[in-house]
Write a structure and sequence with these properties.
The chain is 80% helix and 0% strand. With 173 residues, the protein is an all-alpha fold. The chain has one domain. The mean pLDDT is 82.
């Protein structure tokens, strides 16, 4: 088992991108499209929950010194979540709805977001955290992933407590 936080989360991003690409292979089959988007929604929710949990609980970020990074991190999560929800809503309302441009936009956002996180968070975690800390985090991630319970609201509440000293950051959460 790898002890790299970067590898763990990069693998999630790659899975999200594969799911998005699979959408174009369905050739407009409404049932398959809806199932792909539901699966995508599950994977994104799981990934963001676990990622934000690690960020809040293990990486001690100063809300002022790291303000720009944190704003971008949470803003991009919100943007991806909102676009994915919009796609799902449109497909459920009208299964023949053509969402190819939105899927392409979401795919591009995920790629940009992955690059941003790799450069600014994941590699940093691998450098700053000890091997034992990384093992504990990865074991916790594995347990959380198996539970299937991803309460984004709860993890965002924890972030609000942690970053309470910065009102601008709280607006994003």
């Amino acid at each position: 088992m790898s002890t790299s936080i970067a590898e763990h989360f990069a693998s999630d991003h790659d899975q999200i991108i594969r799911i998005l690409r699979s959408y174009f292979k369905t050739r407009g089959n409404p049932e398959e499209n809806i199932q792909i988007i539901k699966n995508l929604n599950w994977i994104i929710d799981r990934h963001f929950y676990l990622e934000e949990k690690v960020l809040v609980q293990y990486l001690e970020l100063d809300p002022y010194r790291n303000f720009t990074l944190l704003i971008r991190f949470y803003s991009e999560h919100n943007e991806i979540l909102n676009l994915n929800a919009k796609i799902r809503k449109n497909l459920e309302y009208d299964p023949l709805f053509t969402i190819n441009p939105a899927i392409t936009e979401l795919q591009n956002l995920v790629v940009l977001h992955k690059n941003f996180e790799m450069e600014n968070f994941y590699y940093r975690m691998d450098e700053v955290l000890s091997l034992d800390e990384r093992r504990v985090i990865l074991k916790s991630l594995d347990i959380s992933a198996k539970s299937g319970f991803y309460p984004m609201v709860k993890i965002r509440e924890s972030a609000k407590v942690l970053f309470a000293s910065n009102p601008e950051l709280l607006k994003i959460l």
